[in-house]
Amino acid sequence: MVEVSNPEKDPAELVCDGRGVGPAGRPVVLAYRDVPLGGPRAMPVRRSLPQRGRSLIGAWCFVDHYGPDDVSETGGMKVPGHPHTGLQTVSWLFTGEIEHRDTTGAHALVRPGELNIMTAGSGIAHSEYSTDSTTVLHGAQLWVALPDEHRFVSPAFEHYAPPATDVEGARVLVFLGTLFGETSPVSMYTDLVGAEINLRPGQQLEMSVSAEHEHGFLCDTGMLISAGAVAKPGEIIFHPTGTDHLAIEGDPSEPTRVLLLGGEPLGEQIVMWWNFIGRTHDEVVRFREGWHRERETHGGVQFGAFPDSWPDTLPAPALPNVRLRTRG
Which residues form the Pirin C-terminal domain (predicted)? Predict the structure, then answer.
């Protein structure tokens, strides 16, 4: 991950049903909350998804935005081996470099403008550390919930470096789905779109999109305007389904960088707790118990054999002492 572990000591257990906030058909700004990534100096991240008013954008279910972070002050990214189920992690960097290892045997570097996507499926474990050459770390860690029919697929890892495309003077990198005539070859389990868009100062950009998709614009730098909504770095402008045309405008005084995250509504309820996605409380309990058994054996059946280079792994936090009631 570029922060693929939920670092909270007491993570909330969430049932996500995709309901939104604000008037029907109108965009809304999703704020963020600050979360320390852990460690003695605690690298901070800005978490804008999930939240009480909006759990999902399409199948996108988790958005952490971080940096620019001076690793000499915070220690950078230091996330030991930890598990995931029922999701895909999407790692995207603007500055810096992350070393990734997982229990499929994948060993890769996350670099700016290059997509690393890890499918947890039935279960995987991985670690993420910023490299010694990294002085500033800046990027986003994103999760995609797998639909019920595919959530127990075999774990996998994929890398893709999208070409940069000029769109009316804007620099665009399409890393998932199709946008501006560019299509990513990365295979997904729901219909999604993901792209980095770099606007000149004050530039306006229009785009054709699927009216059946929800869309969110994560502001990275500058200030972003879309349909009258204004977002600062770390905030998301969310657009519900129903429009095939979206427009954005950048900060008049400086370049604006944006991540577009969109997709067809998942149409399912999911339970998110720590790094697990399931469908019921009892299922998450089983995932947690399985992880702790395999920590004792350095890997096992569900989460795979741990790399020899892992000196330790993260224990799962204690579960809440009440059962979660589903809603929606």
Answer: 195-294
Range of the domain at 35: 14-263
Distance of CA 161 to the CA centre of its chain: 17
Angle at alpha carbon of residue 68, lines to 185 and 206, rounded to 5°: 50
Q: What is the pTM of this model?
A: 0.91
Do the domain assignments include residue 64? yes
On the question of a cis peptide bond just before residue 320, with omega within 30 degrees of 0, the verdict is no
Distances (CA, A) of 244 to 73, 179, 206, 241: 44, 12, 11, 9
Q: What is the CATH number of the domain that holds 51?
A: 2.60.120.10
Give the mean pLDDT of the chain.
90
DSSP string, 191-238: -EEEEEEEEPTT-EEEEE--TTSEEEEEEEES-EEETTEEE-TT-EEE
**Which residues, 6+ apart, have CB-to-CB distance to 166 below 8 Å?**
172
Element (H, E) at 74: helix 71-74
Per the domain annotation, does 276 fall within a domain?
A: no
